[in-house]
Design brief:
By secondary structure, this protein is mainly alpha-helical. The chain folds into two domains: 283 residues, Fido-like domain (Fic-like fold); 65 residues, Orthogonal Bundle (Arc Repressor Mutant, subunit A). It contains 14 helices and four strands. The strands form two sheets. The chain has a two-stranded antiparallel ribbon with strand order 1-2. A two-stranded antiparallel sheet has the order 3-4. Helix 2 packs across helix 11, helix 6 runs antiparallel to helix 7 and helix 10 runs antiparallel to helix 11. The protein is elongated, with a radius of gyration of 23 Å. The termini are far apart.
C-alpha cells in the first residue's frame, strides 16, 4: 500500500467542488442565520448556547477515539476557563479538565497564525502529563506510527504515517500551508469548509504526535473554519462526525491513499453542513425556550418552574415525557401535589398530555 505522503505529488492536493456548490452555499446561508438568531437572544442565553456547543465538542471529539469524559467535569472546566464561575469548580476527571480547557483556548486564539508552539501547547493542555508518552513535542519513536484495528494477530492497518524523522520538516511545511491559506495569505482558500477539510486530512496524514492526533486535528479543522469565516464558529464538528464514526474513518482512510481528494472534501463539507444545521436547531431551540419561559414563568410556582426548566435542558426533550413519578423525584413533593401541578400545567397550555390514568405523560407544548 502506498499512502498519500509517499507519492510524488504530496502534498499538492487536488479536488473538484462542482457536486457540492449547493451545499457550500447552504452552509453560508446557515452561518448567516445562526449569527442573526444568536444576536436576538439575551446575553445569558447566548452564553448558555455557546457552553452547550463547546461541551458537545469536547465530549464528542474524545468519544470518537473511544474515550468517554465526565460531562459535569467538562462543563466545570469550560466554565472555569471562560470565567463563568464565581469560584473555580472542582474537577475530578483530569482528561475532562484538559479537553474543556483546550476548547476555550483554541476558541480564544482562533485568529492567531498557527505555530509549532501553539500545537505543542494544545497537546500539553489536552493530555496533561501522562507517564507513558511525551507531551508537547513531535513523536520521536523509531517504531512505525500506524492506525490499526482488530484483535491481536488479525490486525488491519488502515494507515501508516511518515517516520518520526520526517515529522519536523512535514509539520513546518503544514504550518506554512495553513497560514498561507488563511484570509489574506498568499494561497488563500476562501471557502471555509474546503480549507477545513484539507487542513484536517493534511494534519492527520502526518500524525505528528504520539497520541491525541485526532483530537488536535479536529481542533485544527475548527480553527481553519473560524479563521476563514472571521469569527469563532458556533457548531460542533465532532458531534456531527461522532454520529457516524464509521463513515468518518472510512472517508479518512480513502483520503489518505491519494492526493486527489474530491471524495474526502465532499464528505467533510457535508459534515460541516450537518454540524451547522444542528447548531441552528440548538439556537432556534434556545430562542423558543426563552419565549416559552417568558410566557409561562409568572404563572408557575417554584416546583413547576424547577420541573419545566429541567424538561427544557435539551432540544430532544425530557426522555419519555414527564410523569408524576419523575415530578415527585425532581420537585421533592407528594404524589397528590405532583398530579395537581401537572394538570395545571396542562390546563394553561405549558404542557400537553398523552395517555390517561397511570400511563399519562406530559410534554413541553411549544
Amino acid at each position: 500500500m502506498t499512502y498519500n505522503w509517499q507519492q510524488a505529488d504530496w502534498p499538492h492536493f487536488t479536488y473538484q467542488l462542482s457536486d457540492i456548490e449547493e451545499v457550500l452555499f447552504s452552509i453560508s446561508e446557515e452561518t448567516g442565520h445562526v449569527s442573526g438568531v444568536l444576536k436576538a437572544l439575551p446575553e445569558n442565553i447566548q452564553t448558555e448556547t455557546l457552553l452547550n456547543i463547546m461541551v458537545a465538542e469536547a465530549i464528542k471529539t474524545s468519544a470518537i477515539e473511544g474515550e468517554y469524559l465526565s460531562r459535569p467535569d467538562v462543563v466545570s472546566s469550560i466554565k472555569n476557563n471562560l470565567g463563568l464561575s464565581d469560584k473555580k469548580e472542582t474537577i475530578k476527571d483530569k482528561k475532562a479538565q484538559g479537553a474543556g480547557k483546550l476548547m476555550v483556548i483554541a476558541r480564544k486564539n482562533y485568529a492567531e497564525p498557527l505555530s509549532q508552539e501553539m500545537l505543542f501547547d494544545w497537546h500539553s493542555i489536552l493530555l496533561g502529563e501522562p507517564k507513558r508518552i511525551k507531551v508537547g513535542s513531535w513523536r520521536t519513536d523509531d517504531e512505525l506510527m500506524q492506525v490499526v484495528s482488530g484483535p491481536i494477530g488479525k490486525e488491519k492497518v488502515h494507515f501508516e504515517a511518515p517516520p518520526s524523522g520526517k515529522v519536523p520538516k512535514e509539520m513546518a511545511r503544514f504550518i506554512k500551508w495553513f497560514n498561507d491559506t488563511a484570509p489574506g495569505g498568499s494561497k488563500e482558500i476562501k471557502k471555509a469548509p474546503v480549507r477545513s477539510a484539507i487542513a484536517h486530512l493534511y494534519f492527520e496524514s502526518i500524525h505528528p504526535f504520539e497520541d491525541g492526533n485526532g483530537r488536535i486535528g479536529r481542533a485544527v479543522a475548527e480553527k481553519a473554519l473560524s479563521q476563514t469565516i472571521g469569527r469563532p464558529i458556533m457548531m460542533s464538528l465532532s458531534q456531527a462526525i461522532e454520529a457516524d464514526r464509521k463513515a468518518y474513518y472510512n472517508a479518512l482512510e480513502k483520503g489518505q491513499r491519494k492526493n486527489e481528494i474530491t471524495d474526502w472534501v465532499t464528505y467533510f463539507v457535508n459534515v460541516v453542513h450537518q454540524a451547522q444545521i444542528s447548531a441552528r436547531e440548538l439556537i432556534d431551540f434556545a430562542l423558543r425556550k426563552t419565549k416559552f419561559i417568558d410566557r409561562y414563568k409568572p404563572d408557575l410556582n417554584d416546583r413547576q418552574l424547577k420541573v419545566v426548566l429541567r424538561m427544557l435542558e435539551s432540544p430532544d426533550g425530557f426522555e419519555g415525557g414527564m410523569t408524576a413519578g419523575k415530578y415527585i423525584s425532581i420537585a421533592k413533593t407528594s404524589k397528590a401535589t405532583a398530579t395537581r401541578d401537572l394538570q395545571m400545567l396542562d390546563e394553561i397550555g405549558a404542557l400537553h398530555s398523552e395517555g390517561a390514568g397511570r400511563s399519562v405523560h406530559y410534554f413541553v407544548n411549544f
